[in-house]
Structure formats: structure tokens, C-alpha cells
Amino acid sequence: MSIENRTVLITGANRGIGRALVEEALRRGAKRVYAGTRVVCTHPDERVTYLSLDVTDQAQIEAAAKAVESLDVLVNNAGLAAYDNLSDRAQLEQHLAVNLFGPHAMASAFLPQLVESRGAIVNVLSVAALASLPMIPAYSISKAAAFSLTQSQRALLAPQGVRVHAVLTGPTDTEMSRDLDVPKASPESVAAAIFDGVAAGDEEIFPDPLSALLAPSWVGGSVKELERQNAALLST
């Protein structure tokens, strides 16, 4: 799916990858970009409409769904990452609320529009969904759960014509990863690679140099094959 002349909604759109996704969608000729944020923002491009949107607030999600009449691409980008050691259950619950239940609530609320357009859901996850980062275990757990959610959504929504993509990002130069002392990709390059992956129909998108190392072995790997086999059970 090309972004040109499409309507796109991006959560967590005020900074980092989210802000880069807004600019990339505009560069690619999007007809309308809905930018979901928890803070008041403005944009000089008249194609951008900001929505007051906290993905943990069901009332705000429902209000946004009523305000958006049509939608081609939903990008669940809003996320939370905090250092912890799993000693505080509240930290884990907060990560799950944002990184798992937030994307689930968004997809559920906007499903009628996406079915109508035969559109796409793009869940921005992390390579930590595949192998936990022990310095941010609550984040890793929530992203692993969100990856499982993505695989389930993919199988369940395919009959309705909705495609579901998982973005497995590596280290990116954002505020979220500023204390991580490793080479990082720019948000702009990651945003471009995400939309390239959507256009190519890639179910898993590896948008940076580190994550891209996993791509060659993923598509034909045993985990991907097991996902396909499990999805096929729906039609038996």
C-alpha cells in the first residue's frame, strides 16, 4: 500500500519516530495525516490534524474514532520504555497498558474504517520483542506481548482485508533510548523504512541496520513457518 493519497493516523506523533512518521507521510503525498498526541501541537501543513489522544484513555480513543470518518493506515507508534528490574508490578502494568492494550484498543476502535478501506495496521514494536533487554524488562515483556497480538490480529483480520504489520526496530536516536550507549539509526530513516515495508507488503519490517540483520533468516525461519501453520488452523 502506497501512502500517496491515503489517510494515515499515527499515535505518539509529537516526537521521535512518531514525528518522523508524520513528516514522511506528508513527503509521500498523504491526503490526510491524523497525529495523535497527549499534548497540544500545531503543524504548518494543512493536511495534518492533531487529535488529543492518550492510548490508555478509552474515552479519548472513542472520540478520535468518531472524528475520523475514513482511514487507510493506523500506525500504533505510541510507547513507553522505562528502566526497571521487575520489582514493581505497577511498572509492568503501566507498560502493558501503553504498549499492549493501547494498540489493541486503537485497532478495535478504528476497525470499521479499516475494513471499509481494506487498510492496514502498523504496530511499531522492537527487537526486544524477540530477545528481552534485561535493563528494560517490563518494556521487553510488553513488546513481546504486542508482537503476539500483532500475529493474532494478522490472522483474524485477513479475511476482512486488513493487513497487519509488525515493525521490529533496533536502537533509534530518540528520547526513549538516549541513555543507551550503542549506535542508533535516525528516526527519519526508520520512518522511511517503515512506509517502504508497508508498500512492499512486508509482514515484519526491520527498519534499521541492526534489525535488518535478522530479516534474511526470518521470512523462511521456523518461527515464521509456525505462525503460518497456526494461522491456517482458522480455516480448518
Automatic annotation (TrEMBL):
Organism: Kribbella jiaozuonensis
Key words of the record: NADP, Oxidoreductase
PROSITE patterns hit by this protein: ADH_SHORT
Coiled coil start-end: none
A molecular function (GO) term: oxidoreductase activity
Keyword field contains NADP: yes
Protein name, per record: SDR family NAD(P)-dependent oxidoreductase
Family matches, as PANTHER family: DEHYDROGENASE_REDUCTASE SDR FAMILY PROTEIN 7-LIKE, RETINOL DEHYDROGENASE-RELATED
Family statement: Belongs to the short-chain dehydrogenases/reductases (SDR) family.
SUPFAM superfamilies attached to this UniProt entry: NAD(P)-binding Rossmann-fold domains (SSF51735)
